[in-house]
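User: Please run a holo structure prediction.
Assistant: Happy to. Please share the sequence and the ligand.
User: Here you go; the ligand is flavin mononucleotide.
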Amino acid sequence: MADRTTTWLGLTLTSPIVVSASPISKDVGAVAEAVAAGAGAVVMASLFEEQITNDQMALHRYFDALSDADAESASLRRADLFPVDGGPHLAHLTALRKRVSVPVVASLNGTTPGGWTSYAKRLEDAGASAIELNLYDVVTSVEETSVVVEGRQLEVVRAVVDAVKVPVNVKVGPFYSALPAFAHQLERQGALGLTVFNRFYQPDVSLETLDVDRHVTLSTSAELPLRLHALALLSPCVALSLGCTGGVHTGRDAAKAILCGAHVVQVASVLLAKGPGHVATLVAELVAWLDEQGYASVAEARGLLDVRSVPDPHAYERLNYAKMLDGWAPVR
Ligand SMILES: Cc1cc2nc3c(=O)[nH]c(=O)nc-3n(C[C@H](O)[C@H](O)[C@H](O)COP(=O)(O)O)c2cc1C
């Protein structure tokens, strides 16, 4: 039977199926079930920049309101008074570490440089095996160019990397005009991994209420090819560990991501829909496919269809796009 171990961020994982940041990772029992079913690691749900900075602001406001004498005695109790929203988060990290033996990755979600990034150190001290930094950015200003936005994001990455000794993985959305160059910059800032692609919260509009229709929809496998394309392009040009998130619903989807260069697949939707124990099916399907194809390990299959290795590299490129469009004719 094929060896399903993989390496990711310098860690050796028993399987490339990773529980992605999601409500699953908020539930210790669900995580334990996913790990028992074969998950190689778990990424915690994110702690948001806004949560950390709001708590820091609350602390400042509190001390501003006190007299000096009060402040002195209160400062002794500040940890109890303001466990900082991270308190429960750190406790959850400890609980996960106690319950499962696979690496637990803590996740921070933010986009502006600032004191909040030092929180990464607290997560490391609490036992996180790595930090995932989700650069979920919604740019609304006409003043901010992509150069400014990316520069700011790289500053955040550098701050988190500088704050910890554990590896840092960066999770990004699909909207970069020059992803290979950005990935290269991430590497230069000291990140060890890159996960593509975060799914954006995409509010719909309601024609009935004439309001924004807020809901999160789960992915389908139809979202995978966007990731496969990015992985295939990135795999030869960076030394980063590559993660695939978005649209992995079967072991065969995972196999496709691995062929395009992924070290791990980070799954949320399929586990939310089918339960954490469904990891066992994903692993079994992946191993069955590796065996069918005669690959001895995940490592042997990894990257075999990246842009460097595929027999027709143009299949990933613009030239092929032009050819494909030509193949269509209108229905009559
Ligand atoms: C309900 C829900 C909550 C999520 N929470 C987080 C989060 O806290 N941090 C994060 O980085 N990603 C979060 N994600 C994104 C997932 O980790 C994952 O990257 C994304 O859903 C794509 O994978 P999928 O197609 O398997 O769902 C969340 C996704 C869902 C559906």
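The chain has one domain: 6-326.
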